[in-house]
């Protein structure tokens, strides 16, 4: 865990403290929620051994609007976390069956979302980085794409080939993928720019990256019941800055409602499609954090309208899918 660090996105050293969050070691024992208890054990046994409590500062970068907390876990900390978790639970999927209605809908939505931007064809090479057992690639594989997964989960679905646990483990480092999917991954990693740069080297010349992250800065700061699962919190501006720093050009972005892991937690997600780019503009756009934490009435109405419209479109698509 590091206390003093510059912004991992834009490199600036201008943090604005936004809130404090306090955690106690004894809470790991006191809770009857196994998920929470396990994360607090990681915090106090792996990341801050010997401590009985910790106070974290949620802070926002005044330059690019990226939000994280301090002290911040490093790459070695997150690796230790996943090694610990892999001995306890099924990473990336929990106890939800891959063929449950919930997971089939998620897979269908991912397929439709990427197919519209990058038509899935026979032989297309698709990598889902951090995609658990590869369950979300089901319909992409059905279309004849070659599907690969990189994840700590070592029980891949039959339609994917697992290449390792992390970028460093990939057995075919000269691999080139037409489509790389990063769905709800970037918020978990200690060095998002470095991961994106590594994945950029694996993109085919006309390849595309699809990234989706939860939008946890809409009208409030992240609640952080525990600080072990999500390390990074993005606005559209700071996600665009992240992509730009890593050498990508954002082609399209959107903000949609999505159903997070059951039981039925409705959240907002940011989605973007990107391509590698040799030529990128200098600097970063100004922070849009305040606009999302304290949106104007117009912006609130626009987001409500956009998410409602997306919800209607997706429910129509689900109905169409279910009648096929
Ligand atoms: Zn920054």
Descriptive account of the structure:
There is one protein chain. The radius of gyration is 19 Å and the shape is globular. The mean pLDDT is 88. It has one domain: Rossmann fold, CATH 3.40.50.150. 32% of the residues lie in helices and 25% in strands. The chain is an alpha/beta fold. It binds zinc ion.
CATH class, anyone?
A: Alpha Beta
Going across the major beta sheet, what is the strand order?
A: 6-5-4-7-8-10-9
Structural class by sheet pairing and helices: alpha/beta
Query: In which range does the helix fraction lie?
Result: 25-40%
Provide the CATH topology: Rossmann fold
Quick check: average pLDDT?
Answer: 88
How many domain regions? 1
Q: How would you name the CATH homologous superfamily? A: Vaccinia Virus protein VP39
Overall body shape: globular
- Beta content comes to 15-25%
Radius of gyration: 19 Å
C-alpha end-to-end distance:
51 Å
Short description:
The protein is an alpha/beta fold and 324 residues long. It has nine helices and ten strands. Helix content is 32%, strand content 25%.
Secondary-structure map with pairings?
Layout: E1 15-24, H1 27-30, H2 34-47, E2 53-61, E3 67-70, H3 75-86, H4 101-117, E4 125-129, H5 138-142, E5 146-150, E6 161-164, E7 177-183, H6 192-201, E8 203-215, H7 236-245, E9 248-259, E10 266-276, H8 289-293, H9 297-323
Parallel strand pairs: 4-5, 4-7, 5-6, 7-8
Antiparallel strand pairs: 1-2, 2-3, 8-10, 9-10
The protein binds zinc ion.
Zinc ion binds next to loops.
